C-alpha cells in the first residue's frame, strides 16, 4: 500500500522517533514504505515521513550502486551513526516532505553505522558516497532534523516563502 507523505509544517517531522521492538510489525511497514519510495522515485524514506514515529527507514540505491537490473533496497531499523569521516562534501539534496526545494548540503563522505536488519540482527557497515549521504539524510529525519536545518541562515531566508507555501498546503 502506498502511504501518504507528511509535508513540511507537520509537527511529526520535528519529533524524535522511537526504537522498534522485535515484536513490532515492521515487515509490512517496510514493504509499504518501499512501495511508497518506488512510487515517488526517490532514494530514501523515513518513518516520520509517513506519520510513523519509529526508527525505521528504507533506502533504494538500485540506480546508484549497480546496473539497475538487481534491486538494491535495504531496510534499516534502529540505526545509529558510530563515526564520521573528516572529509565532507556538498551535494544537492531534496526531500519528499519538502517538495520542489533542492539545496546543497555538506555532510561527511564516509560513515560507520550500526542497525538492525530485516531479521532484527545487528549489523555494522562502513558507508560512503551517495549511500552514506542518503543514510545521513534519513537518519536526520529520525532525529526530527530536516535537510533545510543544515543550510546557512542566508539560504534559509531565501527559501522561507516556499517553505511557508508548503506548510500551508499541508494543513
Automatic annotation (TrEMBL):
<keyword id="KW-0378">Hydrolase</keyword>
<dbReference type="InterPro" id="IPR023635">
    <property type="entry name" value="Peptide_deformylase"/>
</dbReference>
<dbReference type="GO" id="GO:0006412">
    <property type="term" value="P:translation"/>
</dbReference>
<keyword id="KW-0408">Iron</keyword>
<feature type="binding site">
    <location>
        <position position="95"/>
    </location>
    <ligand>
        <name>Fe cation</name>
    </ligand>
</feature>
<keyword id="KW-0648">Protein biosynthesis</keyword>
<feature type="binding site">
    <location>
        <position position="141"/>
    </location>
    <ligand>
        <name>Fe cation</name>
    </ligand>
</feature>
<dbReference type="Pfam" id="PF01327">
    <property type="entry name" value="Pep_deformylase"/>
</dbReference>
<dbReference type="GO" id="GO:0042586">
    <property type="term" value="F:peptide deformylase activity"/>
</dbReference>
<dbReference type="GO" id="GO:0046872">
    <property type="term" value="F:metal ion binding"/>
</dbReference>
<dbReference type="InterPro" id="IPR036821">
    <property type="entry name" value="Peptide_deformylase_sf"/>
</dbReference>
<comment type="similarity">
    <text>Belongs to the polypeptide deformylase family.</text>
</comment>
<keyword id="KW-0479">Metal-binding</keyword>
<protein>
    <recommendedName>
        <fullName>Peptide deformylase</fullName>
        <ecNumber>3.5.1.88</ecNumber>
    </recommendedName>
</protein>
<comment type="function">
    <text>Removes the formyl group from the N-terminal Met of newly synthesized proteins. Requires at least a dipeptide for an efficient rate of reaction. N-terminal L-methionine is a prerequisite for activity but the enzyme has broad specificity at other positions.</text>
</comment>
<feature type="binding site">
    <location>
        <position position="137"/>
    </location>
    <ligand>
        <name>Fe cation</name>
    </ligand>
</feature>
<feature type="active site">
    <location>
        <position position="138"/>
    </location>
</feature>
Amino acid at each position: 500500500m502506498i502511504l501518504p507523505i507528511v509535508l513540511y509544517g507537520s509537527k511529526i517531522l520535528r519529533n524524535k522517533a522511537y526504537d522498534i521492538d522485535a515484536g513490532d510489525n515492521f515487515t509490512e511497514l517496510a514493504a509499504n514504505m518501499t512501495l511508497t519510495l518506488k512510487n515517488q522515485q526517490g532514494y530514501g524514506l523515513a518513518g516520520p515521513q509517513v506519520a510513523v514515529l519509529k526508527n525505521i527507514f528504507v533506502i533504494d540505491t538500485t540506480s546508484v550502486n549497480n546496473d539497475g537490473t538487481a534491486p538494491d533496497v535495504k531496510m534499516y531499523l534502529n540505526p545509529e551513526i558510530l563515526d564520521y569521516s573528516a572529509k565532507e562534501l556538498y551535494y544537492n539534496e531534496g526531500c519528499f516532505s519538502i517538495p520542489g526545494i533542492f539545496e546543497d548540503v555538506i555532510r561527511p563522505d564516509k560513515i560507520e553505522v550500526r542497525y538492525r536488519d530485516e531479521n532484527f540482527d545487528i549489523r555494522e557497515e562502513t558507508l560512503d558516497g551517495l549511500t552514506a549521504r542518503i543514510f545521513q539524510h534519513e537518519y536526520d529525519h529520525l532525529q526530527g532534523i530536516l535537510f533545510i536545518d543544515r543550510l546557512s541562515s542566508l539560504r534559509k531566508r531565501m527559501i522561507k516563502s516556499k517553505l511557508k507555501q508548503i506548510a500551508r498546503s499541508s494543513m
